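Notes from the 1:1 (GR / supervisor)

We went over the backlog. Supervisor wanted to see one worked example end to end before approving the batch request, so GR pasted a single chain during the call. The sequence is below; no edits were made to it. Supervisor asked that the structure be written out right there so they could see what the output format looks like.
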Amino acid sequence: MAIARALITRPRLLLADEPTGNLDSARGIEILTLLATLGPRSGVTTVLVTHSADAARFGHRTTRLRDGRIDA
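Structure output shown during the call:
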């Protein structure tokens, strides 16, 4: 529901902090697929913050933060 509320305003930037944290794996994949297709379809840039390596694979670019530093 929170994702729907965020998208209704047609933002150019969507900040998603652990969007699949409370979901089962099937629903998580659905949400990640939705977020991954938003950019090409509607011009939304999504910044996804996650602890999940599986979720991070849905991104086009990955930046890791390790011990308070960006680990490129």
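Supervisor's comment: The chain is about 40% helix and 20% strand.
Batch request approved.
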